[in-house]
Amino acid sequence: MPEWLDPMAATLTEERFAGKDWLFERKFDGIRLLAYKRGRKVQLFSRNRLLQDIPAIEKAIAAMPVKELILDGEVAWDRHSTYHVFDILWLDGKSTTALPLEERRALLKKLKFSGPLRRVELLDEDEPWERARKEGWEGVIAKRRGSPYEHRRSKHWLKMKIEASQELVVGGFTDPQGARVGLGALLVGYYDGDDLVFAGKIGTGFDSKMLIDLRARLNKIEIAKPPFTVAKGLPKLRAHWVKPSIVVQVSFIEWTVNNKLRHPRLIGVRFDKTAREVVRES
Burial, 30: exposed, middle or buried (Cβ in 10 Å; 0-12, 13-18, 19+)? Predict the structure, then answer.
């Protein structure tokens, strides 16, 4: 059994299509998670091979009646409620990556799943992206029938996003006002070479617990001056600055003409990426 297999990545497409050559799945908001089972030992890794500690998922996989297993999927942002499994790379001494997509799905269907594990089901709508739009999903994934699992970004998997989404680095925050607790908004940016470019502020997508928890984390890394080196539009009042080490996932409508986020909302905090990896996505 291999120590590591690079995960397959989907290619972004602006097209909207359907047809008998493709299968469609929901694109989940979360963190890519690969599960490796050797006997009772289970290890969970992010897509960048960073070890993850999620006891509920480890316990459920350890209890499965197979000796060796590698699963691929997406874990919810809270990191424990659901592990959405969409592929299988290894099963009891044999690689499954060369098998056609449908055969890998059939193998997954035979496995006994228990919570918080959940198989990703196929979408049967003629226009699945319209369901994604109505139900507020991030998007859908189109997967070519008969395709193998490739350890690279592939055009056999195509992602159709409903709204833009990307990682950003927290460089500061503002104080809460009125009845709000914790903080007012996060001040975020991305790296362009050695520059940390200010991309705007995020004030929605939080609940009270997240606001309080984030403020506690941010207080520990507060610094005296803004870390942004390209910083047009920074707030001048009630602003605090932090060491750029926390990465968040953000959804938004588009980039403005001034290179700021339009209508951003927080999806979650990322634990699988370092700040220096975060660049503006095209």
Answer: buried
Quick one: pLDDT at residue 198?
97
User: Which one of 20, 27, 225, 236 is the catalytic residue?
Assistant: 27
**Fold category of 29-119 in CATH:** D-amino Acid Aminotransferase; Chain A, domain 1 (3.30.470)
How far is residue 179's CA from residue 272's CA, in Å, rounded to a whole number? 33
Strands 239-242 and 247-252 turn out to be unpaired
Residues 243 and 221: beta-carbon distance below 8 Å: yes
- Pairing of β 239-242 and β 164-174: antiparallel
Under CATH, which number does the domain 164-277 receive? 2.40.50.140
Which value, in Å, is the radius of gyration of the alpha carbons in the chain?
20
Q: Is 282 helix (H, G, I), strand (E, B) or coil?
A: coil
Does pTM surpass 0.85?
no
At the second CATH level, the architecture of 8-27+120-162 is 2-Layer Sandwich (3.30)
In the chain, % of residues over pLDDT 70: 100
pLDDT in tens, 232-253: 999 988 999 999 999 999 988 7
249-281 confidence digits (pLDDT tens):
998 878 888 899 988 989 889 888 899 999 998
Residue position matching structure tokens 């969409």: 86
Query: 167 near 58, Cβ under 8 Å?
Result: no
The three-class DSSP label of residue 33 is strand
pLDDT (mean) for 147-160: 97
**Does 27 participate in catalysis according to the annotation?**
yes
Query: In the prediction, which pLDDT does 282 show?
Result: 72
Q: Are strands 153-161 and 9-12 parallel, antiparallel or unpaired?
A: parallel
Alpha-carbon gap, residue 19 to 42, rounded angstroms = 38
